[in-house]
Amino acid sequence: MKPSASPIFESPLSDFGYDITNLSAINPEYGDMSTFTALVEEAKARGFSGFRGESHVE
């Protein structure tokens, strides 16, 4: 089983974060780009490499 997370991009959060309004900004509730960068760096240091950003619309 792989861990998963909800989207962290800027969103009004009326659809659990999948209603993204800005793909280049982190939702302020989750921090900012420097917080995300630190998270990615720490995850890589611990051997985790599964960050992906996908959103599918049908």
Automatic annotation (TrEMBL):
Query: What organism is listed for this UniProt entry?
Result: Enterovibrio norvegicus
- Enumerate the Pfam families for this protein: Alpha-amylase (PF00128)
Where would I find the Glycosyl hydrolase family 13 catalytic domain in this sequence?
6-48
Concerning PANTHER family, the annotation shows: ALPHA-AMYLASE FAMILY MEMBER, NEUTRAL AND BASIC AMINO ACID TRANSPORT PROTEIN RBAT
GO molecular function terms attached to this record: hydrolase activity
Q: Would I find Nucleotidyltransferase among this entry's keywords?
A: no
Record keywords, A-Z? Hydrolase
Q: What is this protein called?
A: Alpha-amylase family glycosyl hydrolase
The yes or no answer to whether the keyword Acyltransferase is present is no
